[in-house]
Structure to design on (192 residues):
C-alpha cells in the first residue's frame, strides 16, 4: 500500500507499507495509511512552525539587546559593539563589522573577528565617501549581497584583507535611515 505523505500545501513524500503475504492490504488499509500520512505531514508542519518561532524569538531577543544598548549616554561605538556581538551569535559568523557612512566619508564603527587584526581592518574600513562609492556602487544602491567565495570575488581592500586572513564567504547589508539613504554597512564573514 502506498500513501501520500502530505504536508500543507504540497506533497512531502510517500509512505510505503509492504507485506510478504499476497492480498494482505485492502481499501480500508489504504484509507488508514492515508490518514496516518496526513498526521505525519501535520507533525512536520508543526515542527517547522516551532522552528520558525524559535528563530523569530532569537531574532527578537537580539533586537531587544541592541535597542537596550541605546540607553542614555550610549555612543555609536557602544551600540555597534553590541550589534556585532549579536550578529555573530545569530548567524554563527566568525567576523562581523559595522561601518558608518556620512558626507565626510566612511569609518569602521565596530568589529568583532576571530580571523582579522582589528587595527588593520579599521585602517581598510575608513576613507573618503567617493572611494567607498567607487568600490560598492551597485551594492549601495541595492540590497543585501552574499559573496559566496571571496577567492573568486573581492571588490576592495576590506575583502582582500578578510580573504588573506582565511575568511571565505561574506554577507553585506546596507543600513538605511528612515528616508532610505544608506548610512552604514554591516558585513558578516566566515571561513567556510
Amino acid at each position: 500500500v502506498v500513501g501520500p505523505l502530505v504536508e500543507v500545501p504540497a506533497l512531502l513524500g510517500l509512505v510505503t507499507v509492504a507485506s510478504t503475504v499476497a492480498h494482505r492490504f485492502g481499501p480500508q488499509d489504504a484509507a488508514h495509511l492515508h490518514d496516518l500520512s496526513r498526521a505525519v505531514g501535520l507533525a512536520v508542519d508543526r515542527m517547522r512552525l516551532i522552528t520558525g518561532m524559535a528563530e523569530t524569538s532569537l531574532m527578537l531577543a537580539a533586537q531587544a539587546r541592541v535597542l537596550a544598548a541605546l540607553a542614555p549616554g550610549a555612543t555609536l561605538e557602544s551600540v555597534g559593539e553590541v550589534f556585532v556581538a549579536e550578529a555573530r551569535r545569530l548567524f554563527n559568523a566568525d567576523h562581523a563589522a559595522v561601518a558608518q557612512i556620512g558626507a565626510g566619508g566612511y569609518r569602521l564603527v565596530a568589529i568583532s573577528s576571530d580571523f582579522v587584526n582589528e587595527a588593520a581592518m579599521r585602517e581598510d574600513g575608513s576613507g573618503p565617501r567617493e572611494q567607498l562609492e567607487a568600490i560598492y556602487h551597485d551594492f549601495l544602491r541595492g540590497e543585501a549581497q552574499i559573496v559566496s567565495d571571496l577567492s573568486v570575488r573581492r571588490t576592495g581592500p576590506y575583502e582582500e584583507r578578510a580573504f588573506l586572513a582565511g575568511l571565505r564567504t561574506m554577507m553585506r547589508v546596507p543600513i538605511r535611515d528612515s528616508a532610505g539613504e544608506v548610512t552604514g554597512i554591516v558585513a558578516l564573514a566566515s571561513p567556510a
Notes: The first strand starts at residue 2 and ends at 7. The helical segments are 27-68, 76-91, 118-124, 129-135, 137-141, 157-164.
